[in-house]
Amino acid sequence: MNIFEQLESNVRTYSRVFPAVFTKAKGAFLYDEAGKKYIDFFAGAGVMNYGHNNPKINDAIMEYIQHDGIVHSLDMFTSAKRNFLEKLDSIILKPRKMEYKIQFCGPTGANAVEAALKLARKIKRKREIVAFTHAFHGLSMGALSVTGNLHYKNDFFANNADVTFVPYDGYLGPGIDTTQILRKLFTDRSSGVKVPAAIILETIQAEGGVNVANIKWLQEIERICKEFGIVLIVDDIQVGNGRSGDFFSFERAEIKPDIVVLSKAIGAGMPLSILLIKPELDIWEPGEHTGTFRGNNISFVGGAKALEYWQNDDFSDAVKEKSNFLNALLKNLQIKHSQLITEIRGCGLIYGIVIPEDGICKTISSNAFKQGLIIELAGANNEVLKLLPPLTIDKETLRIGVDIIGEVMNNALTN
After folding, report:
1. Rounded CA separation 401/410 (Å)
2. Cα separation, 96 vs 255, whole angstroms
3. Cα dihedral value 365, 368, 373, 378, nearest 10
4. How far is CA 22 from CA 12, 197, 385, in A?
5. Distance, CA of 286 to chain centre
6. pTM score
7. Is the pLDDT of residue 66 over 90?
8. Which of 14, 191, 268, 365 is most buried, most CB within 10 Å of its CB?
């Protein structure tokens, strides 16, 4: 028994799926202690959008530390916080004509989801929340209540009484507009569903199976929220920060959420989570939602440097170009393996390969790992191979990674 199995809790997950001891990482690659090289199609579940040990980000952090910069300051003012706020406002918000107040939460995305739900309930003075089938918003008590997957649900862990789940776009099949179900529930006084304080959604459900919401569907959800006085919360933790090709995943739909939840890549590899709140909704009392590690200054430094990638359209254009390249590779893979793959879905640099046959995705992921590719699973039944590489990855590495998937599929069919 090694030290990890001896001392680490049974709750560990990814180390069971990818059983190696990693020692080094650079760009789109990880290396284990035996020196083996792995292509990373996982990117820390979307934390490492700008690649492992990005030299621009590392240099900024090292310079800050070497000059005795403040590491921890609760939510006091620091030069690092000011620089982050200025860049977030000038590079991201103002060019998109977005006006938001910025709340720094605890370091995890789940804590920011908790804050968003609390604030919406405070604003509307009601408890009801609407979430969607296949949603994943975290595993702390409030976030778990709006997470759909029953694998994580337990009545001891969360109070689900005030949350109603409704069908996400496409859940009932093509041609069925599930927003009309939502509208009917809110207008029918006998539906048993109250108009909620908030609707929370991901515009692309990552853990739920890489389900990409239709633009018209998203726009109708926004209209419903405005019509019924509902706070619209968009969880952009995994699919924001450039993952969709735009900085925010909802830009393609031209909607303006009341609250946006950001984490993962916003700290450029360092822990950070924030809420963007429309100014008129920022009704918190001082200290009403707090936490020791809100305002991690190392994250401010790394995050501010990462935001510089968005000073013009070059980075976004490059992500979209690589998206088209990856989509073409995956469509070809589907043609070659039509007996396995039923669908390719995604956008930007998040894609899902849908293989419904039970257990096949798990086998492919395991065997791909042996061939030097890290790729995780998604969907209610782990029926989706989820591609989530760093946004800085080059096309050749994307091609090699997809080739590994194809080779493993060939072996699965012949064995």
Report:
1. 14
2. 11
3. -10
4. 16, 44, 22
5. 29
6. 0.97
7. yes
8. 268
